[in-house]
Model the fold of this input.
Amino acid sequence: MTLPIIFILFLGFLYIGSSAIDVKGHVSWNDVCRGYNQLGHSRVVLDNDKHSGGILKDGSFVIPNVPSGTYLLSVISHDYQFEQMRVDVKDSISFEEPVVEVRPYVLGTPMSPASTILLPYPIKLSARQRFNYFVPRESFNIMGMLKSPMILMMVFAGALVLGMPYLMNLWQNSRESRRRCHTHRVLFRVVISSLDSPHL
Done:
C-alpha cells in the first residue's frame, strides 16, 4: 500500500523538478562587437536580474533553473546595446522538459498580448550599437549666446542705460520745441487779432 504512494510522490517530485529549465543562447559577433575581448564582462538577465547567466568566451550563455513563466531577456553590458526579447517558459503536458518560446520585444510596448512572431531557440543575440559616452564640448556660438534669456536681459539693460541720456535729451528738446511752438502760436493769434480789430 505504501509503495504506490511513494511512487506517486517520486513522480510528483520529478514533475516539480522538471518544471525548471536552463535557458540557453549564443551571442553572435558582428561588425559592432567583434569578439569577447571587445564585449568584456557582460551578463544575460531575465526580469532585471531575477535570473542571470554570464557570457562565455565563445559567446554562449546559460541561465540555470528558470521556472515556468514569462520573462524579459536583456543583456547588461557596459559598452554595447542588445535587443530585448520576451521568453516564455511553458510547462509541457508530459514529463518532458518545459518548452521555451522566444519572441521579439519592443521597449515600451505591453507584454500581453504576445507577438505572433516566434524566434528560433536557442536564443541568438547580437550587438546593435556601441554606447558613446564621450560628449564633444560645444564650441563658442554667438547666436547660441543671444538665445539665452540672461544675455537678452543684460543686452536690454545695457541698451537702456546707454540710451537713457539720449532719450532724456530728446525728451527735453521736444518739450522746448513744444513750448516755443506754443509761444509762436500765441504771438501769431495776438498779431492776427490785432490786425482784425479796427484802429482807434
About this structure: The helical segments are 2-18, 36-39, 142-146, 149-196. The radius of gyration is 42 Å.
